[in-house]
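Structure in, sequence out. Go:
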């Protein structure tokens, strides 16, 4: 057997999947609870991404911030892969890893960072409000999942509540950053779906780890060029923001997120992200000093109801 084909051929599938479904056969009981917890931890890590990016932009240009965060995350991931002597993935997985790299590692961070130059974190959270529904749609097209009507109604209602809340928070006006945000929504949903599919045949941390390493030939020269052209001001905020988006959002958060998706299925895991915009707004108040309106608790309660329904619905 060739070395390049051995990464998954010798490894048992991480989570058994019922025929014709993306739901794991062990999706009930302790495995499902563990998967839900892991996905929730991923959402918590992601909810800090926009505030951390805003901090990072205080001392780095947008291209420098994205390139350097990706290089740092790739160094962490590559070190883990090397230390554990993980073999290269099989050739059949490289296309999927490229989709993850393009969507999650490069596309979403770059597009949202560019948007956050002129957009508030509240307005950017509209993207996150739409992401669960878009991910479920990509999953239906790519993986062939068929969630129930109840699932779709609850997911649509949750997305509508989040969108209405975040748009109201930003004054209801569209900004020039919207093109970046909607493009980020599409590429990230594609990356999440492909990553969730791959996480069923290899450990989730290896999915994002190899995707990060795959980007190094691009991100290293881009980082060098960007740092030479964009001014850099090292402050407590900018360094903390950079380190969080590199280690927390770009690696650790995606590791537990993909493990969660592999355990409970892509559609159900994606609906946990309905809480992400509200968490982001809370962090924005605590870390950025933004003001939270009284509508937030009511919106949070409505979203939690939608999440509960989607988790119980057949997906």
């Amino acid at each position: 057997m060739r070395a390049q084909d051995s990464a998954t051929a010798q490894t048992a599938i991480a989570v058994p999947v019922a025929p014709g479904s993306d739901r794991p056969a062990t999706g009930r009981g302790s495995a499902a609870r563990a998967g839900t917890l892991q996905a929730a931890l991923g959402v918590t890590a992601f909810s800090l991404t926009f505030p951390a990016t805003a901090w990072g932009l205080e001392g780095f240009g947008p291209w420098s911030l994205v390139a350097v965060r990706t290089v740092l995350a790739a160094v962490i991931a590559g070190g883990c892969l090397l230390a554990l002597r993980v073999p290269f993935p099989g050739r059949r997985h490289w296309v999927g890893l490229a989709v993850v790299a393009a969507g999650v590692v490069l596309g979403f961070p770059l597009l949202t960072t560019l948007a956050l130059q002129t957009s508030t974190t509240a307005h950017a959270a509209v993207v996150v409000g739409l992401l669960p529904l878009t991910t479920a749609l990509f999953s239906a097209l790519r993986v062939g999942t068929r969630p129930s009507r109840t699932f779709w109604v609850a997911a649509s209602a949750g997305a509508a509540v989040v969108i209405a809340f975040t748009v109201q928070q930003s004054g209801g006006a569209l900004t020039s950053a919207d093109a970046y945000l909607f493009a980020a929504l599409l590429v990230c949903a594609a990356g999440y779906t492909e990553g969730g599919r791959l996480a069923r045949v290899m450990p989730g941390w290896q999915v994002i780890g190899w995707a990060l390493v795959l980007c190094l030939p691009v991100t290293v020269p881009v980082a060098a060029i960007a740092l030479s052209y964009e001014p850099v001001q090292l402050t407590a905020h900018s360094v903390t923001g950079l380190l969080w988006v590199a280690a927390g959002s770009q690696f650790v958060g995606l590791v537990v997120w993909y493990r969660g998706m592999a355990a409970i299925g892509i559609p159900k895991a994606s609906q946990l992200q309905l809480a992400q915009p509200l968490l982001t707004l809370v962090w924005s108040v605590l870390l950025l000093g933004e003001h939270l309106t009284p509508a937030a608790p009511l919106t949070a309660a409505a979203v939690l109801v939608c999440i509960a329904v989607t988790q119980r619905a057949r997906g």
